## 1
Amino acid sequence: MANVTVYNMEGNEVGTMELNDAVFGVEINEHLVHMAVVRQLANNRQGTQKAKTRSEVSGGGRKPWRQKGTGHARQGSTRAPQWTGGGVVFAPVPRDYEIKMNKKERRAALKSVLTSKVQDNQFIVVDDLSLNEIKTKEMQRVLGNLKAQKALVVTADNNENVVLSARNLADVQTATPSTINVYDILKHGTVVVTKAAVETIEEVYA
């Protein structure tokens, strides 16, 4: 089992913690990680883009001029794509971008990125993360002590003071063990996790 150092909010070492190899010591599967990221980004798309084709725009029911003898090119409708106010060629229509992925594959991808963060020394465990008040400067100070400026902060429960204090920091995001995902973990340089959150993650995903 991998051992990681446990820090306090001042950035001082206060002990060590053993991580479960079933979650934090698996073989990294880059293919599943890639699939998980593509799936999340695709599923976030609304798919509501819409433009009208020549059959949907209003007007253009009659032939604008006779076929021959005018000197103009022949035209059948004023709503053809080459006309102002005409329809769009191959217009986009609402569609569903959803990509499906098996539950076991999603879990394996999550374990892979957690393992990679541990191996790259970008996984910081804090004994406790609690703020007495909502204060962005205090949250910034704590992350500075931990040398984690661009961080995903994972707490065992939805700690309101921590969430609201971190909300205004551009490169900081908060999550709980039930809301962590592959994309967010990869996007942030460092993952800062409380001891309680690590234990919850091991219970859920081991």
## 2
Amino acid sequence: MVKVERSFPAPESLAKEAKKAAGNYDSQDVIERLKKDFHNKCYICEIKELQDPNVEHLLPHKNGKYPERKFDWENLFWACGQR
């Protein structure tokens, strides 16, 4: 697993999107910061220069499990689509 030193503060779009009914956690500013913070490596398999990257949640927000973590900067991770 990639050791990451996350940059702070969180991208501005996360707070804005969290206020929306159908907010989006993968805005361009989030993608750029995750790519930089994770050195463009998948946090699981450490593949570099991802071709089809995803913004993933360590603690899932779907099905109401951790809805408060959907826009949590420390819960977002850079991952490849090959899982």
## 3
Amino acid sequence: MKRNWFIPVLGMCVCLAGCVKMPEEQHTSYETLTLHRETVTAMLKWSAAIKGAGDVSIVSRCSGTLDEIKVKNGQHVKAGDVLFLIDSRTAMNSLEHAKADLQTAIARRDNAQLEAESNRNLARQGIISDYMLRTSLNALQSAEAQVAQAQAAVRDAELRLDYCTIKSPVDGLVGNITPRVGDVIAEGTMLTRVAGVSEMEVSFSLTESQIHALLAESGSLDKLITLAPPMTLRFKEGGEYRYKGRITSFSGMVDQSTGSVTCYVTFPNPDGELFSGMQGSVVMPVEWEDVVLVPLTSIVRIQDKVLVYKVGADSLATSALVEIEELGDGQRAVLRSGAEVGETIVAKGAANVHENDRVIW
């Protein structure tokens, strides 16, 4: 008689099924936050470049041999101090020629004036024709024009001679001097820079969203400049500059390559602690009134998108696109749109959340 193997096998399967545990639904614990409005003062911080407010490039405005360098690198100079002397002999000769040409033009004008006066008297007596009188008067006008032209040539020659003596236009510190005595200098050659050091200009970039946020508080750039609080300068190594600065201007247009606007802050520099070319950061306290704040740990960035995970009454996490403005403290951001007051979001560890995860808090 055949044995029936089906019944024992079926019983074994039932037994095994009773021994295997079915997978349970996974619950993950996250820190959450219920959104609410508040007022906060944040210290906004931007990387900044420092240069003298009166920095000028010293460029040769004539050509010739560099005869003398009157200053040294780093020397403090006053406006009007002589920096360089360029061989002036050619310029002096040009001036002498121009003066001689002027004297010749003046003599010709005087002769033309005498002839015109004489012809005017003769014309009254009917001795010469009106044509001859007009011809002499035209000759006088031409001679006067030549005198004016010769006078302009003298002024040009005087300027070229003056350009041979190069002076500092501002008070400041002399930068690196590139040429040497004996070098042949061409017109337009960069000789050095003089850094105005009584005031320093610190520049930094504001994003379009940042400038819009600041304008929303003030109403206009002019009011923003007037109402902006004093700014603090921090050195690269972490120290803080003792004097405060004020916003003085904006670039007025958005840089297409960076999408930012340049802001300029002027700091006093009475002790000469600041130098052109230094790097640092500027810090400005900004009060945000009646805003919704979220921690940056609640933010998930995917390419150009920013999202948070909302937690509903069913404890399921669902993603939502949002717009934010970071406070600059490295910890928080202002929530502009995408979530409402009273909603709950995952506040910490959002990068580990998946869509429809069940969240325990």
